[in-house]
DNA sequence: CCTCTTTCGTTACAAATGTTAAGACGCACA
DNA sequence: TGTGCGTCTTAACATTTGTAACGAAAGAGG
């Protein structure tokens, strides 16, 4: 059996060398092009590709004296284990990307070897996973906290999905509580549920009640359901469980049709990382913090400030 | 108790933000200077300082298909666990620095939490430690494999030495075997020796028989001793124990005056990382490999090639 | 209160990096 | 043996980054 495409291998080596020379040795691209025997334009391309594919990675050191005031205040106000904020970005899309990147950076440096990571449902989570898969050298072990399997699959652009997935083989929302309960007891489902408490870390998004909510866009809920939930005091959702300002579950019919880790079980988990940013999410994040579901919060500075002011 | 110098804190925050914007978000320095409200010149300075002090770090991903041919060949030829090579540098001084940096990168991503690291004696080791101390977020636990304490202390330029040190409180070379043996049994010495087998990793240099050898420059040995050792077939040293081409100890008087982990004990350790590069070290590295003292080798590509050709 | 020193901002310039368009080259395929 | 296709190099140009010189502002010490 061959070792794969020789041309790609060579490209890879070039990329690694270019990255080494540029970032580790501070050589100019001109110099590197001479050392590697390629054009300078190509060196630029190699470096770009190295960044894109995660061959070269940037990390910000996270030691004790990195905290800004808002971070410290959040930690003590809500009894959190840790908080990490990113500076403000120029658009909401970029902000979510930023926060996802920060979360991936946060996780990857704390997750070792064969550790398992529970993952929630949602757009932010999905972004985090993409970054993670790229940065990881050994495959990650990921356990899903909810149904809705399709959500975790590699998205179009990404290359190989460098992870071992243990997904709950079920849709997120079933058509009846009865069916949910039956599925819940299926051995293959049961098996994943048993893994969940064994993971060292969990990463979940925090949903707001805005029109942008993933759960709406995906068609899991319709606008009507949504409006009713709002009337009942919902400010956001965790793992698709809607909660009120205090983080208490709003008990509605749909909730009993969900294939999703319960809020009580979520609270029992250690190292639950909540990932969410943007002012529209402030109420939802506050609910998550008050409910005690989240141990570590990754957000942006503006939102962190707002959380402090509104609590 | 105050939280330290407010001005330095602020400088730190600026530095972190600048690094985040520049490396994570790809903003231009111009843009960053506006966001941060400082001059562009200062942004350049902040970024420079962030790199210097390890606030921002570059890492090359080390997955399975990074290996170049020489690395794979070395692994299989000598039954090693891993090999990492750096591309050639422009001078020997830079080469050593490169290799030290690579070693630090290698170690830091495999060392977690409260892990302990054994460290040998020598210039290369010392460089590795400096890089390590800078990159680590939590203090490292380092255990010395030899006496010669002064060698491990923070060198002039470095800032805080972010490590917990467990050093053998003794010179490297004592004036008699008798004294060595007595010292060896002192409780404080014994204590460190007992820690050594418990560490997860060890990093050692590999010395050659050149005039540049640390052990000579430090005045531990004089030129005479050195010449005699060469006549007896010495090709290099590990932890100041001189060995022949096959890696067998050359039993001389000085060896029995050394406060240094024995070669047999060294061989028993897991994950011993040998760090050495440059053509002058080829014979010494070969001896270390043949003797089976080293599990992981960090060197440069040119030397790797030479190792294969001369074995 | 006045210097001295240090640090930062400003500016202008030099060097490096990134982008683009045109053409050369190799390679698959008819 | 062409003919397309993609990828590379080359070269010119635009943008970004790095450096150096100078002057203003702030703090230290007399």
Report on the architecture of this protein.
2 copies of one chain form a homodimer. Chain A is built from 13 helices and 11 strands. Chain A folds into 2 domains: 6-52, Arc Repressor Mutant, subunit A (Orthogonal Bundle); 64-309, Rossmann fold, CATH 3.40.50.1360. The N and C termini of chain A lie far apart (62 Å). The first copy, chain A, has helices at 6-24, 29-36, 40-52, 69-78, 92-108, 123-135, 177-184, 187-195, 214-217, 223-231, 263-268, 282-290, 301-309, and strands spanning 56-60, 82-86, 116-119, 140-144, 163-166, 201-205, 207-208, 236-238, 241-243, 272-275, 296-300. In chain A, α1 runs antiparallel to α2 (29-36) and α2 (29-36) crosses α3 (40-52). Chain A is of the alpha/beta class and 311 residues long. Chain B binds a DNA duplex (30 and 30 nucleotides) through α3.
Essential attributes:
homodimer; 311 residues; alpha/beta; Arc Repressor Mutant, subunit A; Rossmann fold; 2 domains; seven-stranded parallel beta sheet; three-stranded antiparallel beta sheet; 11 strands; globular; DNA-binding
């Amino acid at each position: 059996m061959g070792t794969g495409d020789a041309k790609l291998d060579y490209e890879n080596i070039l990329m690694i060398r270019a990255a080494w020379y540029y970032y580790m040795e501070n050589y100019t691209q001109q110099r590197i092009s001479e050392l590697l025997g390629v054009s300078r334009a190509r060196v630029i391309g190699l470096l770009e590709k190295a960044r894109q594919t995660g061959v070269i990675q940037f990390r910000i050191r996270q030691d004790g004296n990195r905290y800004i005031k808002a971070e410290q205040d959040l930690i003590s106000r809500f009894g959190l284990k840790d908080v990490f904020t990113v500076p403000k970005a120029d658009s909401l899309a970029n902000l979510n990307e930023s926060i996802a990147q920060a979360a991936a950076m946060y996780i990857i440096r704390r997750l070792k070897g064969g550790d398992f990571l529970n993952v929630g449902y949602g757009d932010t989570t999905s972004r985090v996973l993409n970054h993670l898969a790229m940065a990881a050298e050994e495959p990650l072990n990921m356990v899903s906290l909810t149904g809705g399997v399709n959500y975790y699959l590699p998205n179009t652009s990404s290359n190989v999905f460098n992870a071992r997935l243990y997904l709950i083989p079920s849709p997120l929302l079933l058509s009846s509580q009865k069916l949910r309960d039956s599925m819940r007891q299926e051995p293959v489902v049961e098996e994943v549920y048993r893994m969940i408490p064994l993971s060292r870390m969990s990463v979940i998004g925090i949903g707001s009640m805005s029109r942008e909510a993933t759960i709406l866009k995906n068609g899991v809920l319709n606008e009507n359901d949504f409006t009713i939930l709002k009337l009942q005091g919902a400010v956001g959702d965790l793992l698709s469980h809607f909660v009120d300002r205090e983080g208490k579950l709003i008990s509605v019919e749909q909730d009993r049709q969900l294939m999703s880790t319960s809020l009580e079980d979520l609270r029992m988990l250690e190292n639950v990382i909540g990932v969410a940013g943007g002012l529209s999410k402030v109420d939802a994040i506050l609910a998550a913090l008050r409910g005690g579901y989240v141990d570590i919060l990754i957000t942006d500075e503006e939102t962190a400030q707002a959380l402090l002011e509104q609590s």
